[in-house]
Every structure is written in C-alpha cells, then in structure tokens.
Amino acid sequence: FKPSHDYISYFDKNNTHWVIADKYMNEIDTVKCTLGITDYHDIRILNNGGYIIQSYDSLFVNMSDVVDGGNQNAKINGVLRIQEFNSSHELILDWFAFDHLNIQDFTNLNLTNSEFTWMHGNSIEIDYDNNLFFSDRRSSQIIKIHRTTGDIIWILGGPLNEFEILNDPLNGPSKQHDARRLENGNLILFDNGNDHQPPLSRVVEYGINEIDKTATL
Questions:
Q1: Could you say which residues of the chain have pLDDT below 50?
Q2: Cα separation values, 39 from 60, 67, 73, 140, 172, Å
Q3: 156: which of 4, 142, 152, 204 fits an S-S bond (Cβ 3.0–4.6 Å)?
Q4: Helix-, strand-, coil-residue percentages of the chain, each rounded to 5
Q5: 8 A C-beta contact, residue 118 and residue 76
Q6: Residue 128: phi, psi to the nearest 5?
Q7: Is cis: bond before 3, omega within 30 of 0?
Q8: Helix boundaries (H) for the chain
Q9: What's the pLDDT at 5?
Q10: How far apart are alpha carbons 211 and 141 in whole angstroms?
C-alpha cells in the first residue's frame, strides 16, 4: 500500500492495474498505462489528481545492425515506459527508453543474445525542479529525464555514468532500489550491492552537484 495525500494505492497483479482508494479504503478508481504491461514497482499520485506510472514493452530488433555478432531477430524485454496522466486520465507524458537511450551503450548487457532484458525500473521520483528521475536496477543507474521533452538530463552510476563519485569506497550503487531526493537536496537509495566485491547491502546518501557532476557519499 502506498499513501499519497488523501489517497491509498495498491497494485492488482491479476489485472495488472493500480487501484486507487480513499483514506477509508473505499476503491474509487483503477489506472494503467496505455501501452505495455503496467508495472507494480511505483506510482506517484499528484496533488492535482494526476499520476505517474510505468510499464514494460518487448521489442524484436535486428541487433546485427547494433553490435558485432548481434542476433538478427533479438527479443529485448524490459523496455521501460514512463507515463504521466492528468486527473482526467489524459496522457501528458509518454517516455519510452528506446527513443531516448542507445542500447549499444549498455556494455553491461550481453547484446549478442537472442533474448535479453534491458531495464528494471523500480522507483520514480519528482525532483526539486519538477523533472523526474528513476532507478534502473538492471544497469545500476539513476536516470534523470526532462518532464516535458523526455530528454536525458543526467545519469548516475552504471555503464553510462556521468558523475565523479567521491568518498565512496564501492564507487557507486549496484542493483539499487528506491532512489529518492531528500529535503536537504541529497539523494538517498537502498544499494542492494549484488555486484560489490564482496556483495554488500547498504543505505547510501549522496550530495549531488548537477553542475560539476559530482556525487559525494
């Protein structure tokens, strides 16, 4: 259950949609993405009655055009889509990973396989400047996007990392969850730590300088 303002939401896995209830647990609405399979990891319900959710699509792509040895009919699972709706359920943002990221840059994935999973989004955050960032566990990265254009603003961690990570002996998160912005401006997340040597789970807080592109533990 996720409390948001005067609402409570939960995910119905059988019907792959979110159920919205009032504070007395009376169900008042159901919501889902217009494309792909709606995902259960996060929902952001807004003060104005709008909401932000995510889904996944699968694509068949000729990966031989992308990487040497790529499969000519590769199935890419986990292509993330983030959608924002207003209070009238009208779609106002449709961000699709394949339109904004180059899969060739994801050197952590085996792009020559006949089938592979690209992304695992597990949290969506509305940032201080009203843009969005989300956690992609699959590639150990946090991606900030422009809320209107969908353009990439920055990427923290993973194969596309743009930040110098300071004072962190493990050099950033691994397979993280739940990236959030604190009131003091810092970014906090749960670092699952699967690929740390040795594996180590921890909660980490970073001071983020978006101009100099530094993240200080």
A1: none
A2: 20, 29, 25, 19, 26
A3: 142
A4: 5, 45, 45
A5: yes
A6: -60, -25
A7: no
A8: 97-100
A9: 86
A10: 18
Nearest of 36, 46, 48 to residue 9 by alpha carbon: 46
Q: Are 103 and 79 in contact (CB under 8 A)?
A: no
Contacts of 75 (CB under 8 A, 6+ apart): 58, 59, 60, 114, 115, 116
Best CA proximity match to 47, nearest among 86, 101, 73, 12: 86
From the CB of residue 72, how many other CB atoms can be counted at a distance below 10 Å?
11
pLDDT attached to residue 195: 97
Q: What is the dihedral of CA 56, 210, 175, 196, to 10 degrees?
A: 160
Cα distance between residue 13 and residue 69, in whole Å = 37
Beta strand 115-117 with 74-85 is: parallel
pLDDT at 69: 95
| DSSP, res 104 | G
Strands of 7-12's sheet in order across: 2-4, 7-12, 17-22, 27-31
Query: Which residue in this structure is represented by tokens 């009655």?
Result: 49
What token pair was written down for 55?
């889904």
Residue 41 identity? H
Supply the pLDDT for residue 2. Answer: 87
